[in-house]
Design goal:
By secondary structure, the protein is of the alpha+beta class. It has 6 helices and 7 strands. Strands 1, 2, 3, 4, 5, 6 and 7 form a 7-stranded antiparallel β-sheet that branches. The longest helix has 41 residues. It is elongated, with a radius of gyration of 27 Å.
Amino acid sequence: MKAFLLGGLMAAATVSAGSALAVELETDEQKLGYLIGMDIGKSLKREQADVDIDALLEAIRVTFEGGTTAMTEEQAQAVREEFIAKRREAVQAESAAQGEKNAAEGAAFLAANAQNDGVVVTDSGLQYKVITQGEGPRPAASDTVEVHYRGTLLDGTEFDSSYARNAPISFALDRVIAGWTEGVQLMPVGSKYHFWIKPELAYGAGGGGPIPPNATLMFEVELLNIEE
């Protein structure tokens, strides 16, 4: 066990020193050690962690060999908490900047879209256009409906689609985003509408899952049925 871990560490250490190839990777221990080093490197790159590789290797070596580390557990915890706090602040700042950009782009898009033929704007700011007008009843906010739908961002990115799954979905109208609650109530069964939903009627500044902060959403919705 110790042999293959140290093999990986030596491999990584030699690579960081600038040689063309760290070890020959002839034994299983060397190969597994190198694999572990690759996994660590990928994880650090994915997290965009700004670390000193020499310090990382030394900490792994000393800890594995049972030596005295340069930091106590208490000091390490303080560094960890500081890093997490800084990372959280950076993510929040990035999200806020992206949210401002999305809000401005969405507002400009909706202002222009409102002038297009067939687009109706409700008092709340919801925009819709009738693709096919059905002849069935309209649902109430308390109803459960069955729909087919496709949702995209302004850049055309599809973030959800029951069509792609080839399976319509049922849900209570009072348990979805406000734009859906309002918009689907406008639809007689058998209709297909296009909706443009501003952030305040969707996921707002927080976004959610694949939805960025302050994203304006576009939906194609087909109302199939009002369930008993």
